[in-house]
Amino acid sequence: MADDKDTMDEWAAAMAEAEGSDGASPVELDELKEDSPAGGEDKLKLDTILDIPVTISMEVGRSKISIRNLLQLNQGSVVELERVAGEPLDVLVNGTLIAHGEVVVVNDKFGIRLTDVISQIERIKKLR
């Protein structure tokens, strides 16, 4: 406990010293504008990021079962999921929920139609 108090006292002294120093000068920063076009260097950086592969997955539902029941599963077994039939599927990118959707069939292949995209603000709130 005494070490924690000493550490806090040292930290408080360092903060007070930093606030009292006259060596700091204010810095003026340019205001960010949403409609400003990206410069050549910025566009190159963005293009690099856009080429990074991510894993997208669709989750129908989840279920928790014991290892004993897991080992008893075989062909024809049914695992009950927590979701109700007709409920939207979760669309995840690298494990992060980004949207909800419904299953569709296009040219004999399954797909998903996005019905609700999670806003960026909501995704950030879920991280906290």
Any overview of this molecule?
There is one protein chain. The chain has helices spanning 2-20, 40-50, 67-71, 120-127; strands at residues 56-59, 89-93, 96-106, 109-117. It has 128 residues and is α+β, with helices and mostly antiparallel strands. The chain has a domain at 54-128: SpoA-like (Surface presentation of antigens (SPOA), Roll). It has a four-stranded antiparallel beta sheet with strand order 1-2-3-4, with no helix packed on it. Strand 3 (96-106) and strand 4 form a beta hairpin.
Number of strands: 4
Element-by-element helix/strand order: HHEHEEEH
Mean pLDDT equals 80
Any idea what the radius of gyration is? 26 Å
**Percent of residues in β-strands:** 15-25%
Q: How are the secondary structure elements laid out?
A:
Elements: H1 2-20, H2 40-50, E1 56-59, H3 67-71, E2 89-93, E3 96-106, E4 109-117, H4 120-127
Antiparallel strand pairs: 1-2, 2-3, 3-4
Would you summarize the structure shown here?
It is built from 4 helices and 4 strands.
List keywords for this structure.
single chain, 34% helix, 4-stranded antiparallel beta sheet, alpha+beta, extended, 128 residues, 23% strand
